[in-house]
Design brief:
The chain is an all-alpha fold and 309 residues long. The chain has one domain. Helix content is 74%, strand content 0%. α2 runs antiparallel to α8, α2 packs parallel to α14 and α3 runs antiparallel to α5. It is globular and about 55 Å long. This is Prenyltransferase. It comes from Turicibacter bilis.
């Protein structure tokens, strides 16, 4: 008998931690745009944050529903992360998941439409509709892209790049090179997150999904992070060369890349020679630490610079 409240059950299918994987890039991207423009539009920034966060929750719940319907999960896949017990592994019911999915779809739709009405920019509406389709079709629908080796790229584009670009654009009212280059960083970080999850699920996904690690091989799925990281570093250097970030921001970014990207994650991750059962529990949160630290700390620096102007 399930004796937890609805909210306790709902929490187990939401994956709140990865919800911030979209919300925080939206926040730092918007603050970067405000830093470039010299002023902050607070309401559009908050609405974009809510929209991005909710759409990521929608994608997470969709994934849980698919795993339940396709019988892809069992007690062996439990990662012991609070809040990620899932529909199969936790106390939530299928009905709970549908309610959560519809609730966050509604909140994201309401905040997105409000944003369109405030800005009178219907291009945002078109992007929002595409983002909703991407979030739901990530796992559900006739051709869910989670089962193909393009999931990392598509997630990087929508979760990292597009959401960041739109958030920054709403602050500047122009789409310029610094915004495009800045969006590469959260895109790559999102790819890191998806790549680590797919590599950790290498054995579990066999027969149900064909992810990039299955195509290029287990070790290559770890090694491919190196050129991706070099692209991220080049983008950060380019912003400094263009005068779009200060020396302090440049140094802060590199310190975060080094500590949370290399010391806390990739240095030991690279040493893994073959898949083992608890990889997801051991390594899944590591790219999240990189995403959290970069977007929160740099977002605060962008905001502080605004206050000092």
């Amino acid at each position: 008998m399930r004796n937890k409240s609805f909210f306790q059950r709902a929490y187990t299918v939401m994956e709140i931690r990865t919800g911030f994987a979209t919300g925080l890039p939206v926040l730092s991207g918007g603050l970067f745009g405000a830093y470039l423009a010299g002023h902050l539009k607070l309401i559009p920034l908050l609405l974009m944050f809510v929209t991005g966060f909710c759409l990521n929750i929608v994608a997470n719940v969709s994934n849980e529903i698919r795993a339940y319907l396709k019988n892809e999960e069992n007690e062996n896949t439990f990662t012991h992360h609070a809040g990620s017990e899932g529909l199969v592994r936790g106390d939530a019911t299928f009905k709970d998941s549908i309610i959560v999915l519809l609730f966050f779809l509604g909140i994201s739709g309401l905040s997105g439409i409000t944003l369109v009405l405030i800005t009178n920019n219907f291009n945002i509406l078109a992007i929002g509709i595409l983002s909703v389709i991407a979030a739901v079709c990530y796992s559900l629908g006739p051709k869910p892209y989670i089962v193909y080796p393009v999931g990392e790229l598509v997630s990087g584009l929508f979760v990292g790049a597009i959401s960041t670009i739109v958030s920054a654009y709403l602050q500047t009212d122009v789409l310029n090179a610094p915004i495009i280059i800045y969006s590469i960083i959260p895109m790559i970080m999102t790819i890191f997150l998806m790549s680590t999850n797919n590599t950790s699920d290498y054995e579990k996904d066999k027969g149900t999904r064909t992810t990039l690690p299955h195509v290029i091989g287990f070790r290559n799925s770890i090694k491919i992070i190196i050129p991706e990281a070099l692209i991220m570093i080049a983008a950060w250097l380019s912003l400094y060369a263009m005068g779009s970030i200060t020396l302090l921001m440049l140094v802060t970014g590199f310190l975060i890349f080094y500590y949370y990207g290399y010391v806390r994650w990739y240095k030991d991750y690279y040493q893994i020679k073959e898949h083992y059962p608890t990889m997801e529990r051991d390594w899944g949160p590591r790219p999240l630490l990189l995403i959290y630290s970069f977007n929160i700390i740099l977002g605060l620096e962008f905001f502080a610079y605004l206050l000092l102007q």
